[in-house]
Amino acid sequence: SLIVSELNGSVMKCIRDQNGNHVIQKCIECVPQDRIQFIVSSFLGQVVALSSHPYGCRVIQRVLEHCDDPNTQVVMDEIMNSVCTLAQDQYGNYVIQHVLQHGKLHERSAIISKLSGHIVIMSLQKFASNVVEKCMTYGSLEERQLLVKEILGPNDENEPLQELMKDPFGNYVVQKVLETCDEQSRELILSRIKVHLAALKRYTYGKHIVSRVEKLVTSGEKHIASSTSYRS
Fold first, then answer.
1. Which of 5, 60, 131, 175 is most buried (CB neighbours < 10 A)?
2. Cα Rg of the chain, angstroms
3. Is the pLDDT reported for residue 188 higher than 60?
4. DSSP symbol at 34
5. Distance of alpha carbon 158 from its chain centroid, rounded?
6. Number of neighbouring beta carbons within 10 Å of residue 230
């Protein structure tokens, strides 16, 4: 505990150091919370900056894993105020993914509702597209349906789906959507995609989707065939 108390006043300096950050992570993992209160206190007002830092983002994830409320609540509030910024950041996105995967139900829902309305833009971005994939993986059925609705757009002519399928990051989001969505949404998406299959083959990233869709379509047709073959 003497060692820990010596860190007081140097927490930020340690976090930004490639060796020091491991010491801070270890303290958070191993030392009783009442002794490391000063560590978490030194983050106040700095959570977004830390989450956007190559070492800081790891430290913030350790706090979320090992500390209880009210310690984490203050950290979480700052994260929640900057969800869209962090989702697009090369380090911050890991913090948002962490909350989506390990956070409480209401935290996950709060993140998804903050991202909704921006899903298409986020899906076309290198870092944020990973966050959208996590939303599809860990969101509730209703939340996933809302995200699908956003990706399909208001009507057939104006659908973002085509743009996403041709995009180096967006195509992964579409694959994740097909993997995670309910049967009804999948049928709808596949029917929308089928129209564009020929055109998609001309695009580097479109090809990934084409092979994925062709597999899904054939397995779907086999499934239909097998369920109808007994009728005389």
1. 60
2. 22
3. yes
4. G
5. 25
6. 6
Count of other CB atoms within 10 angstroms of residue 220: 15
Output the pLDDT for position 223: 54
Read off the pTM. 0.87
Please report, for residues 24, 154, 165, 229, the alpha-carbon distance to residue 32 in angstroms, rounded to integers and kept in the order given: 13, 52, 49, 65
Phi/psi of residue 54, nearest 5 degrees: -55, -35
- Alpha-carbon gap, residue 152 to 139, rounded angstroms: 18
One-letter amino acid at 56 equals G
Residue 72 CB coordination number (10 Å): 20
Q: Which residues of 107-134 are buried (b: 16+ CB within 10 A; e: fewer)?
A: bbebbbebbeebbbebbbbebbbbbbbb
Instruction: Extract the tokens encoding 144.
Output: 């996933």
Q: Cβ-count burial of 43 within 10 angstroms (0-12 exposed, 13-18 middle, 19+ buried)?
A: buried
Q: Look up tokens 């097909």; give the residue.
A: 178
Query: The tokens 């929308």 sit on which residue?
Result: 192
Task: Kindly write down the DSSP assignment for every residue of 176-211, as one continuous string.
Answer: HHHHHS-HHHHHHHHHHHHTTHHHHTTSTTHHHHHH
CA proximity to 224, closest of 190, 195, 199? 190
Q: Residue 1: what pLDDT?
A: 60
